[in-house]
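INTERNAL AUDIT FORM
Audit reference: QA-55
Scope: verify that the stored structure record matches its stored sequence.
Auditor: D.O.
Record contents follow.
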Amino acid sequence: MHSKKPLKVFIDGYLLNKEPQGTQTYIRELYKEITKANPEILFYFGIFYDEEIIKQFSKMENIDFIFFRYKSRIFRMIYEIPRLLKNNKIDFAHFQYVIPLIRNSKAKYIVTIHDILFNDFPKYFSYWYRLKRNFLFKYSAKNADYLLTVSEYSSKSLIKHFKLKNKKIFITPNGVNQKYLEKYKKKDAIDYIYRKYKIKNYLLYVSRVEPRKNQELLIKCFIKLELGKQNYNLVLIGKNSIFNKEFKKLLKSLNQDNKSKIHYIEEVNQEDLIYFYKAATIFVFPSKAEGFGIPPIEAGALKIPVLCSKNTAMSEFNFFRPHFVNPNISENFETALLKIINDKKHIKLEEIKRNIEIKYSWKKSSEVLTSIFKKHTI
């Protein structure tokens, strides 16, 4: 590869068109950092036309967009993407989870497999879900030129389930956006949320609704501990992405008093989401399984007291100790929830913020990927 030829990188960005999720954040924030730091590299985003997505990257002159024509992901992966890689003489192509099965381009393939929780926690996923993803993810992990993931936990899981002892895995952790590190006035945030949503003094949980996310435990504990009578509210924000029968049934069963205190909001815009974080009294994250877990570090970066699960990848968030809990034991969770409510004024929030800022930086993760581009271009 000629060193003076502009390096061309293609990013399969179809997830940017989907509902908010960790993988979408990963693509957006990682490439905002990489494109800013590497003006000499040309980046091509494959997306469906969306003015909002284009606007997010409008300040970068080294970004172009290729608009997908075909809605079918199968057709895109088999035909459309390999063809556009060849026609645009792409050097590196970065995919999330799955690479094309047919390869007719000179491009090096990079894949980020964020997690394979369906293998570690099969009860939360259907047989067909597991079967399809095991085939596609394993193929991608073994055949990509470069394999990335977002945590030590996910790296170990990939090695274990896909027999990848001889494959180098690059870890590119999620980070926190600069907006979560800026100073703000708590009262302004509280006033904003109360004016718009008529909610204040609340426990917050931000995450998609899936069985493994464990929203039901938090609702049940909130009711059992009678926190509503102590003037607390509970706010749950997140799309119902994998149907959770128990969650839906639980919400329907709430009496009028609890309904007035427990607020499920399926979706808010990014600006309001940050305000919800800032105005929260406590952030609670009782998820049973995560490949990473972005919301608790976003809350911690904003200096909100965090009660976090210590399972799977979240075990790496040791700066939240002692407010670390096993979400599989409801009695332990109840005790931990009461403890953080009583301790919230004594938590070293500034220290937690510093730890997050140092450890989880998009700049650091972007440097890992940039080193791949540049090392193999010279």
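Auditor finding: record pair retrieved intact. Residues 8-175+361-375 form a domain with the Rossmann fold fold (CATH 3.40.50.2000).
Action required: none
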